[in-house]
Amino acid sequence: MTKRDVASWTSMICGYCNVGKSEEALGLFERMKLEGLQPNEFTWNVMIAGFARSGDINAVFALFGRMNKEGLVPDLVTWNAIISGFVQSQCPFEALNLFGNMLVSGIKPNHVTITGLLPACGLTGSNQIHCLIYRLGLDVNVFFASALIDTYSKCGSVKDARNVFDKMMQVEGVQADDATLTSVLSACSHSGYVEKGLKIFRLMKQSYGIEGAKEHYACVIDMLCPSGRIVEAYELVKEMPFEVTDSIVGAFFNGCNVHGRKDLTNLMSKQILKMELKRPGGFVTLSNIYAADGEWEEVENVRKLMKEKKIHKKPGFSWARRGAFVGE
Q1: Distance (Å, rounded) from C-alpha 214 to C-alpha 89?
Q2: Full-prediction pTM beyond 0.70?
């Protein structure tokens, strides 16, 4: 390339940011300016979003300030980039604070803003955003609704999650998808609404034309086991049209352990001998159940099986005061 313009510099910067190399991207950004080229709004947004995704809050606000000083007023795209970046880097409180600043500055959020912000509400337990959505007059489409249902699920607000789901179903042309139903079933599981969850699960094919996937079955197993309905969970596992996953096995064994169903533990343990499980969770839980009953021969059998399948349990870690990891 004989001449590098703003577009080519921005393309390179974007590439570095997309692979998490924000510092290298910043180096290019500064070189671009030294060569007499002024970044446009898109370049600034790429840089800000890159540092936001990496959780570097100081760098984000430093760039934000520089952008203002250079006469570029942050628009909705810029605000959305920062909010989304903070959420992706697990900085939910910063995302919510920034959203408040955005409203104060007079910028009206759109669907992109709210969809990006909803996971932060789920992480912080804030369920007030639904009122804001309606005050802003934003239409609730299927993607929007799925994110909102997931947020209420994580906040334990199953009634609100179900209300959003029901309203979505009443809108002509709007159809639930896999993700929406997973979120609803998860909300029922977290809140102990077993019968409601089972009803939705059983009507998935008939009412919504959706076949049960592994995620849906996992939610239902996780719903049944804590409530002591281990036999139903076992029957559901047996009728699954695909191989049982590690998470389902782990949830089932935990339920058996809590409710003293050693008989079902033994039945399931025979089945997992034939499975190609990749993670240690289910095996470790099974081993712990046997160990609690003093059945050391069975514990050893489980360990041998894990060794044969080349499944290894990683050592645990705890967070020491000074910020160093210490093995447990």
Answers
A1: 27
A2: no
Contact (Cβ atoms closer than 8 angstroms) between residue 185 and residue 193: no
- 39-57 per-position pLDDT tens digit: 888 888 888 888 888 888 8
Give residues with Cβ within 8 angstroms of 268, minimum separation 6: 234, 237, 249, 252, 253, 256
Task: State pLDDT tens for residues 144-184.
Answer: 777 777 777 777 677 777 777 777 666 645 667 787 788 78
Question: Looking at 96-110, 224-238, 295-309, which range is the least confident one?
Answer: 295-309
Q: How far apart are CA 252 and CA 271, in angstroms?
A: 13
**CB 217, CB 236: distance < 8 Å:** yes
Q: How far is CA 1 from CA 7, 28, 34, 72, in A?
A: 12, 16, 18, 29
**Which residue blocks in the chain are alpha helix, DSSP H?**
6-18, 22-34, 41-53, 57-69, 76-88, 92-104, 111-124, 129-135, 142-155, 158-170, 178-191, 194-208, 214-224, 230-239, 246-259, 262-272, 281-292, 296-308
Cα separation, 53 vs 298, whole angstroms: 46
